[in-house]
Amino acid sequence: MVASDNFVEVAVGNEHGLHARPAAKVVGLARRFDARVTLTNLTTGRGPVDAGSLSMVATLNAQQGHRLRVGASGPEAQDALAAISALAERDFDDVPAAQAARPSVGQSKSGSGLDVAIGPAIVADRDVDLAGYRAGENEQQRMQDARRASEEQLRTLRDQTAKTVGDAEAAIFDAQLALLDDSVVLDSVAEEIGGGANAPRAWKSALDALASSFEGLDDPYQRERAQDVRSVRDRVLRALVGAAEPVSADAGVLVVRELDAATAAAVDAERITGIAVRAAGTTGHGVIVARSRGIPLITGIGEVEVPPGALVGFDARAGSFVVNPDANVFRTAIRERTAERETALADAEQPAVTVDGQTIQVFANVGSVQDAADARGADGSGLVRTEVLFGDRQVAPTVEEQVEAFRAIAAALGGKPITIRTWDIGGDKPLPFLAQGKEANPFLGQRGIRVFRRRPELLRDQLRAICQVALETPVQLMFPMVTTAEEVAWALAELADIGSSGWGVKVGIMVEVPAAALRISSLAEGLDFVSIGTNDLTQYTTAADRGNSAVAPLADGLDPAVLQLIDRVVREVPAGVEVAVCGDLASDPAAAVLLAGLGIRELSAVGPQVPVIKSRLRRTDLTEAAKTAAHALTLTSATAVRDLLDRSQAE
């Protein structure tokens, strides 16, 4: 940390930078002191901005790895600097989205926890109707009254959410509360009202502009915070015009344009059988809260016409939303999914042996010791994400620190095998302790193993740690983002240079680039295994950024082009080289069967899905699965493949 009498420099270490929640903590701290506090993003040159304004701090575009200058003046300037420095050292007390979405032990979950739902549509996707509003003599006072009423509602929601869902989810409302008292926003509103605008128009104009600012940020997670801004906008507008809350007490499937956290926290999960969201995206605060409550949810249903009261059903696993569906089909699916989950959990520790006697290893993807502890029934870890495990570090972890973390993961998995991926950074995964230059197209730039050709010392330390742990527990290591045989040779030479011979480490690579899949026969020569990362393989094959809602539907792992590349890897990999899949496709039960049909014998899924995947594989005849997989390779779209899997499951 760099410091002087009137400023300090701090690093942003949390995964998604200063998005709404950590920004709200900065704002709250800045407001406590008799000081004028500013923030400047030294990495991008943005600022300085008022640290007491959420609208300014959150749109500073401060991302993980950026450095900030915190300036202060006034009687309590030094106290303010010290407090914000301490907050930064704690990564702004941020909770990663994945952790926030995972229910806490003992936490209340009133939803079914399924991914399928049916019920009459409760349509709440309309804008607040301002047509009947009539301005009064004191619009400024009306604005003040509406904000205070909204503040009271949000405080109540925050307290209720803390009790029934969790503190991490409740903190979402602190950011919304900070917006209601944001001096920059309020000054803009007051100025518009002073110029003759009525209160609703002034408030809507200011919040719409702020939402647009969020949507212009680089990080997809930060962009989705625009939902919170619009949620606050509409809450105050309803207070101004006297409109009712958008969600009624009726039972059924809630249909919304965006799912804000307040709605997700407030709905009666025993009456709301599911929530269908028109907008795409899985990291919005509302989505996090709904999943934490176990409410069935589907996103990205688009502009399908949904008459209020019409029967609707959705299957998030299949990605389908249907108006006027066959009710028996969905009710049957609900019964089957409920029974499937109960059976899967009961038999989680049993091996996944198919009907015809083939054992499929089902591992868990982990990014923390807690992930490993929560992975019921996993045969080990097929992917330890080291960039997540150490993503909060401001300096690179030592060899000893890495050894300790890897040992803890192995212990949490009962000494079962673990596959450790070396640093996979770049694109949307920066590391605070490894600065990277700005690239015009980072997903096609310095990623994965490419980065460490110029910083080999960081990789060597990690290789030493992995090899040391391998003396105590079964360990595999794999190198990410490999494209050429020359990169493989370089990586193996680095491993040999640290004296790894005889340490019992199996070595492999990730297959994430189409070029790697196409030349796998030569690329994998001399390796022990390869692991197909379907997330990036899909993204690069379809030329569609999965974080961009406009093209995200194209990035479908069941696209036949992706499946053909997987099939090629299985068929052309050198003899003796094992093939695994560790991308999201392995977490889909139907897709897992398809992958087994293609010849994959090792899958690594997200922890909660491991019991369900194993249960589905136990009911699978690989001969039939192979026929289905061969058919899937000939189809023309991911939709057609999904239909085929549905038919195969029904037979």
Explain this structure to me?
With 651 residues, the chain is α/β, with parallel strands linked by helices. Helix content is 43%, strand content 15%. It has 27 helices and 20 strands. Strands 13-14-15-16-17-18-19-20 form an 8-stranded parallel beta barrel, surrounded by 5 helices. Mean pLDDT is 84; it is low at 96-110.
Helix content: 40-55%
Span from first to last CA? 63 Å
Mean pLDDT: 84
Beta-sheet strand percentage?
15-25%
Query: Structural class per helix/strand content?
Result: alpha/beta
Number of strands: 20
Taking pLDDT < 50 over at least 5 consecutive residues as the criterion, the unreliable ranges are 96-110
Oligomerization status of the protein chains: single chain
* Main beta-sheet annotation: 8 strands, parallel, barrel
